């Protein structure tokens, strides 16, 4: 009798390949030095396996490429806009759509129409661009995620959950009139791709309805969050990803969306709303910042590909394979004793740089250092998610996040299981020589979102 297995396999076959450049250690050292030890500043051609981000790096399907050929590039009223509008309504349930060039375009417009100077914006852990847009509009971000999210060793399944006691404390201190909305991310990127439970969303919705507070969703990886609910939350095992996604959205008042993640496209996003008056404000502003309200900075072909990708993203077989590949890499990392954020999240593996390099202080950028060392070993590009990403307070002081992580982000439908083996083995080699690794010092720091362009030198 065969053993019972629950293996994942890709629900597609490969029709085309892109050849990769193989580099020598000397070439990688030169490239990294020229990039100031910042993996964002490396040239793509110098990278073997690119795990910098899953944003805009996925492989599109034959249906999406076919859709690109059906692009209606009319300046106003493109048929692709209406196809996208129908997809958002059918899959997510929102009434009104404002397309944007990507997610941060939606964040900018949402912040401008909802936030006044001095407002308090609670959220389940900050995200870099989201918090910056809130701050540029005069808002003050407050983290209301549960404490388990800041503990990489905690095995709690839904570490993205909102702590309602923290929300109530803010309401008591500032009053509901100072809280324009609560920002809920699914999944939570900087916590390690950790999901939010449906029960937590239901409880938050009940609370906010009583208080008269809006819930705005960062739904960039909502299908991944739905998978974790399906697998781990009571009462959802027999529901489809599509059904769970729509239920998540039903407990919110609107959402920002980067189509470059779940929707499997290279560019695109939107702001979705249920309030007509806010929609009117948003579609007026999108003309100023992005483009006409029926294209929002996107070509018709990009809107068509995103509409198709939305439907593909909620297919159960696709999501099982997508998360399955991440879990496979995470388990390989654990076999080698590499400290990672637990439980394994949705869009990548997050290595705990504090545990990996305990001899390097946070002021010497351990996660930035580790990302550089991983590139040097085998040409694998990852990214820092720690003190560099956290940035500075208005006073000029550094934020010191509890989590100091290196993110191994897996693009969708791009790499094979063999690539995952190479990644784990390379990281294990770096782990073996961890005690010889020295930290970095920052020699250039831009004003905003420093992790994109900062430069470093070895200590």
From TrEMBL:
Residues the record lists as N6-(pyridoxal phosphate)lysine modifications: 261
Keywords of the record: Lyase, Pyridoxal phosphate
GO molecular function: tyrosine phenol-lyase activity
Lipoprotein is among the record's keywords: no
Keyword Lyase set for record: yes
InterPro entries found in the cross-reference section: ArAA_b-elim_lyase/Thr_aldolase, Beta-eliminating_lyase, PyrdxlP-dep_Trfase, PyrdxlP-dep_Trfase_major, PyrdxlP-dep_Trfase_small, Tyr_phenol_ly
Annotated ranges, domain Aromatic amino acid beta-eliminating lyase/threonine aldolase: 50-425
UniProt catalytic activity: L-tyrosine + H2O = phenol + pyruvate + NH4(+)
Top-tier EC class: lyase
Gene3D superfamilies xref list: Aspartate Aminotransferase, domain 1, Type I PLP-dependent aspartate aminotransferase-like (Major domain)
EC number(s) reported in the record: 4.1.99.2
Cofactor: pyridoxal 5'-phosphate
GO biological process: tyrosine metabolic process
Alphabetized NCBIfam families for the sequence: PRK13238.1, tyr_phenol_ly
Annotated HAMAP family: Tyr_phenol_lyase
Family note: Belongs to the beta-eliminating lyase family.
Description of how the protein assembles with itself and partners: Homotetramer.
Protein name stated in the entry: Tyrosine phenol-lyase
The organism of origin for this protein: Chryseobacterium lacus
